[in-house]
Write a structure and sequence with these properties.
alpha+beta, Immunoglobulin-like, Zincin-like, 8-stranded mixed beta sheet, 5-stranded mixed beta sheet, 14 helices, leukotriene-A4 hydrolase activity, metalloprotease, hydrolase, M1_LTA-4_hydro/amino_C_sf, metallopeptidase activity
Length: 495
């Protein structure tokens, strides 16, 4: 799953309010004012690959005589700005390599500390907005409808919404999203109804509310041919119909996991905990958005062995964090380091079996049996294969014997299959090459796709085949994935 130490740090400091600091990755006036609420009115245009609409920001001054508000933007076309419904002057500053472009708004009056105004910005995103990924029908499981998803972490929300794009500021939000009637919209918020778009009968407006204050990088939107299944009293799983029933089975224990998390960390404050399984081309493992965790379809192992990674929801409350003296926690000497003593029983079994295979001679192979892996859990089998990958490639006879006994080609667990196929290709087993390329192209998770392509590419006899398969499937890949695999395989982007 995605994560950011810096985002977590700024989030914690923003919650407690004890330490005042600016964000070096943001232009916004985060030390002089704070956004309390966003109201989003969005129109998703699949033909032009843009979102157009308005955002209304409720902004509170943190100092007296506050008169100029600066928001973060990146590649946004700003149409107009008003403050309390009064048109005002605005100017876009110079473009920065990673921070984007500051939007400077001159208020028609000075604010005193604690006063609030509503700033409305009408705008349109760019087709190349860094937060928005537009998938063609070929990149989806159904192959019939286009698909949109956002990825705002760590500082990409500014390319989707003009805002104070820093995790030190948290706000609630409300959204109305107009999409084609054949598609469904979901967001990192609680669903709040839907209606036919009064301005276009061929579109539906979906409404969402997020009453828990959160940083801008957790705003998320997905639009596609989605279906859902109930998997608990506060959970649904969302996906294209090709995955939705498999996902419902895989994540059917979500409520049990949520209750366990609450026993450890306190009540789950977000209300709804839904899981969205994205199309196969989704290049990441997932994203822990409030109310809607993004998940890769490679988690659908068929035996729930990978479902535990879904429950990474944030359960800490403001009251809990406010009890910590963060100045003391950050700046006073800590306790002496303690090296914990872990139980290595499960790992020991993996290490022992891997060492047997690594040390085995040809005449020793008949000493292995299928019973050796029957007692191993899926996670132990993953560790066993990982240990083998850290060493020199096994002789081809060893890998063939392993398949004969363990039948790893039949595994539907993506983590196991990925490591097994890499092991086979490294040992120059030609029969494994088409299996490796099939896995590399039938899903697009970079964790799997890039290493598999690299392994085949490094198998000299099949280097050209790796390039040929990549070029043939590139159009169905996510742009991030295809760009990086192309670099791995030294394929020119114009080819």
């Amino acid at each position: 799953m995605s994560g950011s130490v810096s985002s977590c740090l700024f989030s914690v400091l923003g919650l407690c309010g004890r330490i005042k600091m600016s964000d070096p990755c943001s232009f916004s006036s985060s030390t002089t004012c704070v956004t309390k609420h966003l109201n989003l009115l969005l129109h998703v245009d699949f033909d032009r690959h843009v979102i157009r609409g308005k955002v209304q920001l409720t902004v509170e001054a943190l100092e007296d005589r506050f008169s100029v508000l600066t928001l973060d933007t990146r590649d946004l076309d700003i149409k107009s700005v008003s403050v309390n419904q009064q048109p005002v002057r605005f100017a876009l500053g110079s473009k920065h390599s990673f921070k984007g472009t500051p939007l400077n708004i001159t208020l028609p009056f000075d604010l005193s500390r604690g006063q609030q105004v509503i700033v409305e910005v009408a705008y349109e995103t760019s087709p190349s907005a860094s937060a928005l990924q537009w998938l063609t029908p070929e990149q989806t499981a159904g192959k019939k409808q286009s698909y949109l998803f956002s990825q705002c972490q760590a500082h990409h929300c500014r390319s989707m919404v003009p805002c104070q794009d820093t995790p030190s500021i948290k706000h609630t939000y409300y959204a109305q999203v107009s999409v084609p009637k054949d598609l469904v919209a979901v967001m990192s918020a609680v669903r709040d109804g839907q209606e036919v778009d009064p301005q276009d009968g061929g579109r539906i407006i979906y409404r969402f509310r997020q009453p828990v204050a959160m940083p801008s990088y957790l705003i998320a939107i997905v639009v596609g041919a989605l279906e859902s299944r109930e998997i608990g009293p506060r959970s649904r799983v969302w996906s294209e119909k090709e995955f939705v029933d498999k996902a419902a089975f895989e994540f059917s224990e979500t409520e049990t996991m949520l209750k366990t998390a609450e026993d450890l960390a306190g009540p789950y404050v977000w209300g709804q905990y839904d899981i969205l399984v994205l199309p196969p081309s989704f290049p990441y493992g997932g994203m822990e958005n409030p109310c809607l965790t993004f998940a890769t379809p490679t988690l659908l192992a068929g035996d729930r062995s990978l479902s535990g990674v879904s429950v990474c929801a944030v359960v800490l409350q403001v009251d809990v964090l406010n009890k910590v003296d963060w100045n003391a926690w950050m700046f006073t000497p800590g306790m002496p380091p303690v090296k914990p003593q872990y139980d290595t029983t499960l790992a020991d079994a993996c290490i022992a079996l891997s060492q047997r295979w690594l040390k085995a001679k040809q005449q020793d192979l008949n000493g292995f049996s299928e019973s050796e892996v029957k007692t191993l859990s899926s996670h132990q089998l993953i560790e066993f294969l990982s240990l083998l990958l850290q060493e020199e490639p096994l002789p081809l006879t060893h890998v063939k014997k392993m398949q004969e006994l363990y039948n790893l080609n039949a595994s539907t667990n993506a983590e196991i299959r990925f490591r097994w196929l890499r092991l086979c290709v490294r040992s120059k087993w030609e029969e494994a090459v088409p299996l490796a390329l099939k896995m590399a192209t039938e899903q697009g998770r970079m964790k799997f796709t890039r290493p598999l392509f690299r392994e085949v590419f490094n198998f000299d006899k099949y280097r050209d085949e790796a390039v040929r398969v990549f070029v043939a499937h590139r159009a169905a890949m996510h742009p991030v994935t295809s760009g990086l695999v192309g670099k791995d395989l030294k394929v020119d982007a114009s080819r």
